[in-house]
Amino acid sequence: MNFATVVKEKRAEANLSYRKLSEETGISHSHIRDIENGKHTPSFENAIKLASTLDINVRDVVVSTYQTQLRNLLFELIKTCDDYNVSIPYDVWVKSNLPMDPMGTEKMKLHDKAFEIVESLYNEKNENALTSKLEVIEWIARNPTTYSSIYKSVIPFIETVEDTSGIHGLPKAQSEVDQFIDTLQEKNVNYGKGDE
Where is the HTH cro/C1-type domain (predicted)? Predict the structure, then answer.
């Protein structure tokens, strides 16, 4: 649920008119109306005032409003760079625009890796390949960490398939992969029938 809807619902629950809420927050009643109608996104200061007065969790303010703003801003930046063929080296962009120092080493590693992945996905021109890559990423992200030992095998498996494609051709590599999957599925079906 977006922030505008939450404000509207909470104001109605509290039985506050626009004018009364304006008096309590110091935000003009017309601006509150525009926020509820989605015409304006409130400044962080005004969002906090509304959240405090209407008993809205501040975390919800950040997640529902500012996360969306940041996402939209990043997409706008990517689109503008793409439209005008602007290439900003990653390290220059980070140093000049993002306060990364407080993140700590582990979060920096994660941040850097996330950007590498996003960049490679953004540059993928083959729609089928992009869909497949996204499906793999989503599957790994969705599944519990108990599969971590299996994840370690994924990259060598893909590298082996790529090598096989280069040496024997894609049809042969596909045939080998299909045969491997069929073997595993057959073992799954036969499991419990005495075949282990």
Answer: 7-61
Which amino acid makes up residue 56?
Answer: I
Q: What are the counts of helices (DSSP H) followed by strands (DSSP E) for the chain?
A: 11, 0
d(CA 136, CA 54): 42
Q: What residues have CB less than 8 Å from 64, skipping those under 6 apart?
A: 1, 2, 3, 6
Q: Which CATH architecture has domain 1-73?
A: Orthogonal Bundle (1.10)
Distance CA 41, CA 53 (A): 17
**pTM exceeds 0.85:** no
Type and span of the H or E element at 139:
helix 127-142
Residue 105 to residues 11, 108, 110, 115, Cα–Cα distance (Å): 43, 5, 9, 15
Choose among 56, 51, 27, 53: nearest CA to 40: 27
Distances (CA, A) of 10 to 22, 57, 61, 109: 14, 11, 13, 40
* pLDDT at 99 > cutoff 60: no
Classify the C-alpha dihedral 183-126-124-68 as positive or negative: negative
Rounded Cα–Cα distance for residues 34 and 4 (Å):
9
Question: What is the rounded distance in angstroms from the CA atom of residue 163 to the CA atom of residue 122?
Answer: 25
| Domain residue ranges in the chain | 1-73, 87-143, 144-195
